[in-house]
Structures are given as C-alpha cells and as structure tokens.
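User: Here's a chain of 535 residues. Predict its fold as tokens.
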Amino acid sequence: MEFNSLYYPHPSRRMVVYAKNGVVAASQPLAAQAGLEVMQRGGNAVDAAVAAAAVLTVAEPTSNGIGGDAFAIVCHGGKLYGLNSSGYSPAGLSYQVLKKAGFSDMPEYGWETVTVPGAPAAWAELWRRFGAASFNELFKRAVAYAEEGVPVSPTVGSGWAASFDKYRKVFHGDIFKHWFNVFAPDGKAPRIGSLWKSPLHARTLKFIAETEAESFYRGELAEKIIDFSNSTGGYFSGDDLADFKPVWVELVSVNYKGYDVHEIPPNGQGIVALMALNMLADDDLNGLESGEAAHISIEAIKSAFADAKEYVGDPDYMKLDYNSLISYEYGKLRRRDISGTAANPFPGEPKGGGTVYLAAADSDGTMVSYIQSNYMGFGSGLVVPGTGIALHNRGKNFVMKPQHPNCVGPHKRPYHTIIPGFITKDGKPVGPFGVMGGFMQPQGHLQVLTNMIDLHLNPQSALDAPRWQWAGGKRVLVEEGFNPHTEDALKKRGHEVKISCNTGSFGRGQIIIRDDNGVYCAGTEKRCDTEIASY
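Assistant: Prediction complete.
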C-alpha cells in the first residue's frame, strides 16, 4: 500500500510509527505496553493481543470488561482466521416471555439485555490455537494493575463521570447496587489521574488465567453468575454458560480497487462496511469534488444500514444468504439509487456503544485484529457480586418483531456492532484495522479505508482526518475541523449537517500495515488515551 509522501499531519497530531520486530496499537498505553512486553519475552502477536485485551478490562472499564463479547481476525502463516465469540441469549428468554412481562421494545439495562459473555472464551480460544506463551503469563499485568491500582486516564475519566451521572438517575433497586460498589466505591466516579483498584477484578482474572477460562463457564465464576441471575429475576441456567463455545467462521470480503477487505460475517455488522464499499467501487473519490465524494459515501452508508436493519441477524435465522448483500451486482444496483441529493434510507431487494479495538503484529508476520466490548459504556448495569464482572447488554440490539431475523429468541445471537477488519492484496496480507464505537464502526471503516486506498494517506493521517457520522434520516454530524467547503456542499445537497464537539462519538481506531520488506507502519487514534508500543 503506497502512501502520499507529501501529506504531513498537523503538528498537534501523532506521527505514524514504523517498526520491524513487533507492534501493538491500543486505546490505552498500559495495554499496548503489556502486549509488547509479552512479545519481547517470547510470545507472539496473538499472546500480545490477549494480554492487551486483559489489561483493557481494568484500564478502560468504561468501554469493555470481562463480561463482554469479542471478535478477532488472525493472520497466521499468511492465512486469515475469523473468530466470533459473541454470546447467545439464555434459553429462557423469548419474545413471548418479554411480551408477557410488558415489554414492547428491548430495554437498555437489566437481565433482559444480557447475553452470554464471550470475551473470556475468546482469550482462551485464540491462545489455544495460536499462542506461544503460557496462558497464565498473559494476565500478569492485568492482575497487577487491578490489585495495585491503575491511573484513570483522561478519556476514561470523562466517560466514567458521564456514566455515573446517568446511572444514579436511571439505576434503581438493589439489583444495580453492585455497580456502584465496584465502580463508584466512594460514592462518585474516580477522578482523572487517581488510582482505581479492584481486588475483585484481580481475583476473577486469576481464576480465568488458572483455568483457561473454564471457571467462567463451568466453574466457580459460572456459579456466581447463575446464583445472581436466580436471586434477582434473571433468565440464565447453568447450561447457557456451559454450552457456549466461540465459533471459527469464514470471513466475508469484497474487492475494493485492488484490495480485499475482510470482515466477520453476520451476526456482526461488518457487512455494512462491505456493502458501502461495493457501492463506491467504481467511483473515483480522489478525483471528485470533496462535497460530492462525502455525499455519495454518506448515501452509501445509509443504504447499507437500511439493508442491515431489514435483513441481518443471527445467520441461523436470516431469510437470505448474506453473501447476496455484498455481491458486486447488488452493490451496483444500490449505487444507482444514490441521487445528487440527500435521501431517507430505505432497504433494497437483494436476491436470495462502548468498545475497545486493538491491533498487534510480530516479526513472523502474525497479525491480529481484535475487538471487545460491554456495549453502551459499562453494559447492562449488572455486576456479579464478588467478581467485579460487569455484564454486557448486547441483547439491547434485538428487536421485538416476531418475523424479523433479529427478533429476540432463545439461544440466539443479536445483531452485533463490534467489527474487526483486515486488508489483503493479491492474496497477501496487508494488515489489520478497526474503528470502535457502536454504529459508527462501519462508517469509520469506510472512511479510514477510503482515506488510505483512494487518498493514499498513511495509517495515522487516515485516522486523524476529521470524520462525518450519519445520525439517521438526513442528519449528519461532523467533527470540528471538518472542511467547511465540504460541509456547505453537503448542506446544498439536502443533508442536515451539524458540528459536534463530542469527539468520542466519531469512533476510535488503530491500523497496522505491513510492507513487502516486513516493516510495519502503524497509526493509532488521536481521540482517546492511545499508544503504539513497538520495537
């Protein structure tokens, strides 16, 4: 991948990082350093990714945790492997049960939103297949930070305070008291720069490390989860946890201007980015006026989301082959629907948000695109007593529509927002990329990919560039610093454009690109407490 050597980042932004032996890019410096440390002691990129992921559950609990889900794409020996470790709903949860309980829509918090957490199983599964270090070794830094305390970084501290202010208004009853006990032990959110300790997290991570995650699904930790569910009106049984296994999946991909872009298939929403790329495959974005390029990109994302909302869910319940959504022919049909003015999104007719992302690569060419999340900050608001485990609320993305493929049902995976990505060219690996942030993620994927492939920006510049975010209907949010001429052009095309000061809503990403000489070129997000660790 060739980058425009004449493009220089703004002095206030980070410079792109080059490395030969190993690199880890993450949203927290301590996580990136933990991953690199494991690599320097003989581990590989997969070991580094697991170690960094474990640290992130302690250093950035506002976005992910032990009780969340995970997805990964691993490049090993020149071949790509996809892992879906998103959990299914309990066997006791169904549309009929929720309807009888008075729900017409999926709630944001509580047991109705909790699916089986997949992150611990993902750590063990990745390590068993590809790891080189001992599993226990991968958790030493995370355990130490939980026991001794981790400094609260600026982005995390701001998110923590916002969550606390919200939760004290919406969390009522004893069922939520454990969240406050663990995450606001002094009656308030930890301030930026203070040390946050969680002995319960340390103990739980030790259990996971010592049992290769068995304790979480079939041991002492599983018993605590089930006991909490049974005593507070939850829906889980022991079998729901014991039967869970991550799934190795065949990746879905499209060719975009000579590069193959790979994503995890549904129930993930990576297919949204691929659908949008297909619609833009024959457009010269670099040659278009900036307003026109942004307009057709936004319209493509709107069309892709409309299709995903209509057709995507657990693949076992989808009424069509998801590959039909990413066929070149269907992409061209959807491209014809894009006019010169903003439109409200509508689905076509094919034939037949808190998250952390990290990327790691080692000297042997093994590369990892990894993402995990609790969703909407800390998740469901439920923290399992005696464990520090904040349970996620991925079930929030189910719908209450009986004939819909994403309708809530027993042992069913919901439509999922977190998506790792990977690029190859002519069958050779180029590198991992990802942009975290709920429904911003496919939009972020589209923008960083077109920045690199169409505009030839290096990974850091591709991440630094101001972003737009489709916010429903004809509404488009843009960051401060967004090109005012492009903004005016969008308005003239009927887009309802608003400048947003909330940089966190525009996603946070990392990219690692490998050249033909084995040198890595890495970029990481300017919008969070980020770092690239390399040697």
